[in-house]
Amino acid sequence: MENKTILELREKHLYPTKVPYYSEPLQLVRAKGSYVWDEQGNRYLDVIGGIVCLSVGHNHPRITAKLKQMVEEDAIQHTTFLYLSEQMPTLAAKLAEEAPGDLDCCYITNSGSEANEMAVMTARADTQEPMVVSLQHGYHGGTSTPLSLCGHSNWKFRSQPQAAVTHARAPYCYRCPFSRERGSCDLECVDDVRMTIQTTTSGTIAAMIVEPVLGVGGFIEPPLDYHKEVYKIVKEHGGLYISDEVQTGAGRTGKHFFAIEESGVVPDIISFAKGIGNGAPVGGVITRKDIAQSLKGKLHFNTFGGDPYQSMQAAEVIDIINQEGLISNADVMGNTLRQGFAELKKDYPIIGDIRGRGLLLGLELVKDPVTKEIAPAETARFMELCKEEGVLIGKGSLFGNVIRIAPSLAITEDECEQLLRSCQRAFAQL
Ligand SMILES: Cc1ncc(COP(=O)(O)O)c(C=O)c1O
Q: Could you give phi then psi for residue 152, rounded to 5 degrees?
C-alpha cells in the first residue's frame, strides 16, 4: 500500500494521538538484525528499535525457527491461564533466575502500562496504602494509573483524573533542579523525595516507582547512589520500591539483566516489557511471593497476557541474551559509542550532554552549551538528516531535544562505526 493511502486511512480511522516520526513518514516492511527496510527497498540502520524494544536483533533466527515450528505444529495461539500451557510458567521461571534477591513471582501482561498498573495495584494491596511517589520527567505508560504517575505535560490529558500520586523532583543532573553539579552535590534530589512524602502524603506510602534511567524523559541518568538512598527513604515511610525496567531491563544497560542491580538495590517489584519480547507484546511484573500473596482471594484476569507465542518469544530472548553474551556486548558497544560521541562533542557544541548506560544513550541538544537553551527544532532536523543517512534514531525528553539511541544489544563494531559516521555527517550539515 502506498504511504499516501496509509496516511489517509490513519487520518480517517485512527485516533489523532498517533503521530508518526518524520516530515515524510516511513513505512517499514522488512527487518533483519540491526537493519530495517522501507517499502521501496531502502535499508536503514535501526538504532531505536520501535521504541527501545530491540534486544536480540530483528527476526533473530532462533525466534523465527521456533515461531515457524509452532505454526507448523498448529500450536494453540490463544489460551488463557484458565488452562495449562508450558510457555507462561517457563518464562516466569527464567525471569526468576534473572531477577535479584527473592523476586520469583510473576504476573505476565501484554504491555508495560499494564505491568505498571499491576505493580502499583500490588503495592497498594500489600501496604493497604494508596499513595505512590513518582518522579517529574518519569514515564510509566499510557493507561490510567501510569498516566497519573507520568511527569510530562505532553502525555497528560486535562480530563484525566490523577488520584493518590505525588511527584518528586527528578535527578536530572544536566539541568539540576537544585542548581548543583553532578559529582559534587549533596544529592538534594534524594532529600526532595523525603520532603515530598512528608509534605504531600499522610507520611506513609504504598510505593515509589522509579526508572533506573528515565527513558521517555530523555535517558536521564540518576547518580547510582540515588536509588540506594531513595530506597531507604521509601522504607522509612512504609512503602515498596518499584523499579520500572520497561526500557532498562533485558540487559540494556550493559551490566545486569535488570539495571537496578548495578546500584545495589533489591527492589520489591520490577516491571518489564519492551525488550523482554524483542517486539512481541509481552510485559509483566516480578515480585516476592509474600507480596503477591496480598492479592490472594480475588481474581484478576488478563485475556492475552502470557499467550504461548508471546511467552515463547520472551523466554527465547532471555536465553539468547545469555548465550550470546549480549549484556557484555551492550557494555562494550555502549562504551565505543560513548567515546565516539564524546569526540563529536568536541567539534559540535550543539551536543550539550551525553548520558545513559550501556546501549541506552542520550544526546541532549542545546543551542548554546553555556546557557543550555534547548534545541528541539534542531533535534527534529537532526533526525531527518540521520534518516537521509540511512539511520533511524529516536527522540525524547519533556522538551523534545534529546536524541535517543538504543540499538539491538547485538550491534556490531561496524554498525557502531556506521552510526557514528552518519551522525558526524548529520551534525556537520546541521
Ligand atoms: C519506562 C516505561 N514504562 C512503561 C511504559 C509503557 O509501556 P507500554 O507502551 O508497553 O505500555 C513505557 C513506554 O514507553 C516506558 O518507557
A: -135, 125
Among protein residues, the one whose CA lies closest to atom 8 of ligand 1: 112
Question: Does 386 lie in the same domain as 249?
Answer: no
Ligand 1: lining residues by beta carbon, under 6 Å:
51, 111-113, 116, 139-142, 211, 215-216, 244, 246-247, 273, 283
The 10s digit of each residue's pLDDT in 159-186 is 988 889 999 999 999 999 999 999 899 9
62 part of a folded domain: no
User: Considering only CA atoms, which residue is closest to atom 3 of ligand 1?
Assistant: 140
Report yes or no on 154 lying in a domain. yes
> Is residue 61 in a domain?
no
Q: For residue 293, what pLDDT is reported?
A: 97
The pTM score is 0.97
What is the pLDDT of the chain when averaged over all its residues? 97
pLDDT digits (tens, 9 = 90+) for 33-68: 999 999 999 999 999 999 999 999 999 999 999 999
Q: DSSP per residue over 166-226, as a string?
A: EEEPP--GGG-TT---TTSS--HHHHHHHHHHHHHSSS--SEEEE-SSBTTTTSB---HHH
Domain that holds residue 24: 3-56+325-429
Q: Which residues contact 237 (CB under 8 A, 6 or more apart)?
A: 197, 201, 203, 204, 205
Same-domain check for residues 74 and 218 = yes
Same domain, 223 and 77: yes
Domain count, the chain: 2
